[in-house]
Amino acid sequence: MPARLFTLIALLCLSPALHAQSQAPAQSQAPARYQIYGGYAFLSNSLNGVSGSRQPLNGYDASVAFPSWHGLRFKIDFSAYRGTNLGVPQNPYYILGGGQYTWRIGKESVFVEALGGTGGANQSWGTNTANAIGQTASVATLVGGGLDTPLTRRIAFRVDGGYQYSYFGLMTPVHEVPFRIPGLPTNFGRISSGLVWKF
Question: Which domains does the chain have, with CATH numbers?
Answer without folding.
Answer: 34-198 (2.40.160.20)
